[in-house]
Each structure stands twice: as C-alpha cells, then as structure tokens.
Amino acid sequence: MKDEIFDELLASVQEMDDVVQGKKAAAKVTEFPEPEVKHIREKTGLSQMRFASLIGVSKRTLENWEQGRRQPTGPAKALLRIVEADPKHALKTLHG
Question: Where is the signal peptide (predicted)?
Fold first, then answer.
C-alpha cells in the first residue's frame, strides 16, 4: 500500500474516533425512521397471528412492536421495510 493512501486511511480512522468520542461532529448523519409496524401489517390485510407467523416472530412480539413497547431490530426491521415497500411481492416470496 502506498504511504499516501495509508496516511489517508489512518487520518480517516482517527477522525472517526473523534466523532465516536464526541470531540467532533459527524460530517453527515443518515437517520431512518422506525417502521410503523401496525400500518405495515394493515397494508397487507393480514391478522396479527398470520403476519407474525409469516415474518417469523411470535404474536406477542408483533403486539409489542405495534403498541410501541418494543422496536424491531436488525433483520426484522429490514424485512418490515421490504414488506412496506412492496407488500405484494414480499408476501408472495415469504409464502414460498
């Protein structure tokens, strides 16, 4: 690796460290809103039980998400965004 490229990478890592420690503001922050789970499920026309089963969570978990007691994370959040964007094809794919 050329020295100049290494120096750029090192400066970038040091800048990131400053941002994480709060010494410097991030140049750009991208925020994604939490999915509105109840709205997404209602868009599909499915009951809580059926929707929960389809996305692989318990009905209780889905209820907690819909009532705002908990928020989906990781793969569940990504799956909900996919269902929200294209319910017809997402449900067709999930049905197998």
Answer: none
